[in-house]
Amino acid sequence: MESQIQEGGADGNASLYPAGDETARRRRTEEVRRNLARRYAAQADAYRATLVKFYGADRAQSIKYAQAFEICEYGRQPSPSDLKAMFPW
């Protein structure tokens, strides 16, 4: 969302987005979007085998972007049905 990027949510620093300079704000917003797209495309590629496990080969190959989450090693480990409830697929 634009507000997350321009108000500092994406990188924690709203001062990178000059107030009143819409051209600079748009340019910085596009830069952040490109960087996030690269990051999430790399995660989709890195976890392609896991995507295949959850979505099947055909659907997994069409996924361009993904965010990976790590299950905490401490505490209860979710079952496959727990994961499906948390992350419907």
Task: Explain the overall architecture.
This protein has 89 residues and is an all-alpha fold. It has one domain. It contains 5 helices and no strands. The protein has helices at residues 2-6, 22-46, 48-55, 57-61, 80-86. The radius of gyration is 17 Å and the shape is elongated. The two termini are 23 Å apart.
What distinguishing features does this structure have?
single chain; 89 residues; mainly alpha; 5 helices
Layout of helices and strands:
Layout lengths: L1 H5 L15 H25 L1 H8 L1 H5 L18 H7 L3
- The helicity comes to 55-70%
Low-confidence stretches: none
Strand content: under 5%
The rounded Rg comes to 17 Å
What is shown here, in short?
The protein is 56% helix and 0% strand.
